Amino acid sequence: MNTPTLSRPVDRRDFLKFSAFAGGGLVLGFYLKSSGSATGAEVVKPVAGAEFKPNAFIRIAPNGVVTIVSKQPEIGQGIKTSLPMIIAEELEVSWKDVVIVQGDLDAAYGSQSAGGSRSTPTNYDEFHKLGATARTMLVQAAAQTWGVPSAECNASGTAIHHAASKRTLGYGELVAKASTLPVPAPADVKLKDPKDFKLLGTRITGVDNPKIVTGQSLFGIDTKLPGMLYAVYEKCPVFGGTVVSANTDQIKTLPGVKDAFIIEGTANTAGLMPGVAIIADSTWAAFSARKQLKVVWDEGKFANDSWDAFTSKAKALSSQAGGSTVLKDGDVDAAFAGAAKVITADYSYPFISHLSIEPQNCTAHYHDGKMEIWAPTQNPAAGNPMITQLLDIPAANITVHMMRAGGGFGRRLSADFIIEAAAIAKRVPAPVKLTWSREDDLHHDQFRAGGFHFLKGGLDANGKLVAWKNHFVTFGSMGVGRGGGAPSLQTKSGGSLDADQFPARFLTNYLAEQSVMECNIPMGPWRAPGNNVFSFVMQGFIDELAHAAGRDPLEFRLDLLSQKKSGNYNADRMTGVVKLAAEKAGWNPKRFPKGQGQGISFHFSHAGYIAMVAEVTVSKDGQLKVDRVVAACDIGAQIVNRSGAENQVQGSVIDGLGTMMFQELNIERGRIVQNNLNDYPMIRINDAPPRVEVHFLSTNYPTTGLGEPAIPPVAPAIGNAIFAATGKRVRQFPLSRTDLRWS
Amino acid sequence: MSKYTLQINGQSRNVDVAPDTPLLWVLRDSLELVGTKFGCGVGQCGACTVHLNGVATRSCMTTVSTVGRKQVTTIEGLSTDGSHPLQKAWCELDVAQCGYCQAGQIMAAAALLKENPKPADQEIDDAMTNLCRCATYIRIRAGIKRAAGIPIEGDAMNSMGAVPTVASLQEAVK
Ligand code: FES
Ligand code: FES
Q: For residue B13, what pLDDT band results from cuts at 50, 70 and 90?
């Protein structure tokens, strides 16, 4: 097959880079600014750099097949389908003509991390421009071929049409011509009017579905390379523990075992922890040999940590002044003194695991000074700096293939499993797949931090909220902060209360303080970090205050939302979804008999405004059944893929419910007590509500993501409904800590 | 190591593995049938579900030495071309999020429908014990019903008509 090369001076506005594509065809590699600004008139060089990034590749083959590269990691959020839809929309291609391929980690793509529900908002506008620019060029190619004005041509169905002469040219036929055209000026590229969208807002099914339902190799753990060996890696159950010795000589004699060795590791619990690797000729041989492994650990100084001790300490801290002030408005003490009614409540939640269903794994092959990696990751670049630093492999010699991941939930933003695999592979003369057991996954997560909130609220004689105080006791570990300086206690993602957490800035008298307890437990982002628990606390206590005031919880909330004092919280958008949820659910808590109840909540996170109404039944013996959840979501102007969006919200509702009902890790002797799903239960189909109704409110704001923001309102809506049904207030996760029996 | 001849998806396959090797790892490592997934290794999650003589079985808890002449069906053998009604329903209703659990879900559902072609809602919930971490349970229920020809209440994909705008809602939320 000939491989034509195309060499010509680049256009002054070279945000489009033309290059040859093996096999012939038009390759439009687009390089756009990383900001959301209009497609820049400045020269953008097609090289890696913090300032500029290419956002996608479009390849159109002479046979009319349109290949779109998905640059983001696919972890179940549906990005591999939804982002290419945006290009396809503007490009006016029939979805059936589109092939999606997964891109590798490539500096030329810019950020490829999938976290914070940012994949959609950071790429949305630019993906429109990519598709529209390519479409404009195809229109020009056809117009020139026919000798008619471009304005008389229009694109649809992977073809350009000239209505007056009833002529049509398919994109495949236009490839050669389009490849010779200069890039149009941004002003000459017209984006589609949203009312003309054909794909966006419809339900497009996942591009990998056919592979998923037939069991084809797709996920990281499915990786198989010629001559590949299999590894397990045992780490100290106490975080920060180090290896003193291990019976590696004996392990090496076991069936199927090829090697066993100690890795010294570092103290970084998100990096390469010390441990013992076993390399074998099958997964099972490695798992079996591990049962014979005997390691003497130095458990270090955190070997006495326990959840019970942390709980007592938090309680003690609560009566002291907070270590730091998160936000102080007005004078809460004076306001409490003058209040008609003051109530207090303590809320808490434990450490939990992400439990992504595909255990952490990574395949790595070290050869010729190069490290090649196949990883189910949310953050494909995350491991590279440490691989360079610890294994002395320059970044240019590291290749990362992004594999579909069996769930992310924030877990795979960390690269510990990638770094381990690389460290092992560096010592093995063959490709090697590291597979964590489920026990490894549960014991060595980057956990969602537990926390304690000590709340106080004041109401005036009219039942109006006049003062709010929260002392948040959280966890941190010693480290150097972003600003440098001496080591101090650092909280991790989601472990710090933010100054804008509602109802902050909606009250004249507001105080939030924070104290940090030291631990060495690895902590990291868990789907909607911080928000997933703060919403439960704030929306629960707001509900308590509404009831204490004798006011309807919906009316109390709408009143509070009308009291904004400062900040960027968009109370109008929130009011919109609260009203929508209430309307669609038929808000009327009084219509339920005892044992049944309706609860409401709302939460802003990850740029999404979400409100929920839950209806529950609690039997007299305290068994909860969630009958119905109504979700109202404002994530801006455009739902990209309606099927994916609904799936995310429905899944979030059930995930949020399951987390509230079941998830809990206990800590004793510095280690996680639970081992596997038999003592760490997760929600199953029998506890999933029969009805989860999802409503979207389209508003004139940028389109944002939906992987996370529907999680936070779930637990408080259900907790508030439980209170309405039973009079029992849920202030702790998991639900087993609250006696829900009533008579 | 011991030699076994297994009946996998209608074919005889020879393997040489330790007798205590779970069928899961024989499928994945020795036979390169990776549709059967590892999730927990203790029989809890169901990602490793296969059929043994038509019965849904957790292959992580089934040692190779106990399989004998039993017919093993994996997701790769449920149909030759993805045309099993459950596979089609799963694609049409876009059940999967990450998709990792779904081969196991489909195998569990296939065994259910063989036994009980028109399961009631409660029977579906009782039979489907597999974990879906992405919590796609609403669409799993719908997928089973679609494959069984049972009408799905409302719309599995939650049809709510056009996305409302603020203006169109002003009336609604007053
Ligand atoms: S891997 Fe077999 S049940 Fe989880
Ligand atoms: S789709 Fe992800 S675990 Fe079921």
A: very high
Would an 8 Å CB–CB cutoff place A719 in contact with chain B? no
Q: Which of residues 40-59 of B touch A (CB under 8 A)?
A: 40-42, 44-45, 47
Same fold, A12-213 and A307-352+447-737: yes
Q: Which residues contact A112 (CB under 8 A, 6 or more apart)?
A: A71, A72, A73, A103, A105, A106, A379, A380, A381, A402
Compute the distance between CA of residue A80 and CA of residue A208 in angstroms, rounded to an integer. 8
Those residues of chain A that have pLDDT short of 50 are: 1-56
Minimal CA separation from A612 to chain B, in Å: 15
Ligand 1: does its nearest atom lie under 6 Å from the Cβ of B104?
no
Q: Does B31 touch chain A (CB under 8 A)?
A: no
Please report the beta strands in A73-185, taking only residues with DSSP state E, as ranges in sequence order: 98-102, 153-156, 159-162, 167-170
Over its C-alpha atoms, chain A yields an Rg (Å, rounded) of 28
pLDDT of A111: 83
Residue B63's nearest CA partner among B90, B97, B114, B26 is: B26
A307-352+447-737 placed in CATH 3.30.365.10: yes
Spatial separation of the C-alpha atoms in residues A464 and A49, rounded to whole Å: 53
- What would the pLDDT profile of A703-738 be if each residue is shown by its tens digit? 999 999 999 999 999 999 999 999 999 999 999 999
Would the CB atoms of B98 and A648 count as touching at under 8 Å? no
Pairing of strands A465-479, A510-518: parallel
B98 CB less than 6 Å from ligand 2?
Answer: yes
Q: What is the dotted CATH code of the domain comprising A220-301+360-435? A: 3.30.365.10
Q: Is the CB of B101 under 6 A from ligand 2?
A: yes
- Does B172 touch chain A if contact means CB atoms closer than 8 Å? yes
Is there a contact between A650 and B136 if contact means CB atoms under 8 Å apart?
yes
Query: What average pLDDT score do residues B5-19 get?
Result: 98
**Residue A292 contacts B, CB cutoff 8 Å:** no
> Which chain A residue has its CA at the smallest distance from B98's CA?
A76
Neighbours of A311 (CB within 10 A): 15
Q: Say what the pLDDT of residue A57 is.
A: 64
> Which residues face A596 on adjacent strands?
A617
Domains within chain B, CATH numbers bracketed: 2-77 (3.10.20.30), 85-173 (1.10.150.120)
Residues B99, B100, B105, B106, Cα dihedral to 10°: 60
Question: Inter-chain contact B173–A580, Cβ cutoff 8 Å?
Answer: yes
Residue A183 confidence (pLDDT): 82
Q: Could you give the 3-state DSSP secondary structure of residue B163?
A: coil
- Residue by residue, DSSP assigns B118-139 as S--HHHHHHH-----TT--HHH
Coil, helix or strand for A715?
helix
Q: Assess A90–B contact: CB distance below 8 Å, yes or no.
A: no
Hey, which residues 115-154 in chain B have their CB within 8 Å of chain A? 121, 124-126, 128-141, 154
Residues A77 and A114: beta-carbon distance below 8 Å:
yes
Q: What pLDDT is attached to residue A525?
A: 97
Domain boundaries, chain A: 12-213, 220-301+360-435, 307-352+447-737
pLDDT of residue A482: 80
What pLDDT does residue B157 have?
A: 54
Distance CA A365, CA A720 (A): 52
C-alpha A643/C-alpha B93 separation (Å) is 8
Phi then psi for residue A16, to 5 deg, are -105, 130
Beta carbons of A582 and B173 less than 8 Å apart = yes
**From CA A85, how far away is CA A130, in angstroms rounded?**
12
| Count of beta carbons in the 10 Å neighbourhood of residue A346 | 15
Q: What is the nearest CA distance from B39 to chain A, expressed in angstroms? A: 6
The pLDDT assigned to A50 comes to 21
Q: Assign domain A12-213 to a CATH class.
A: alpha beta
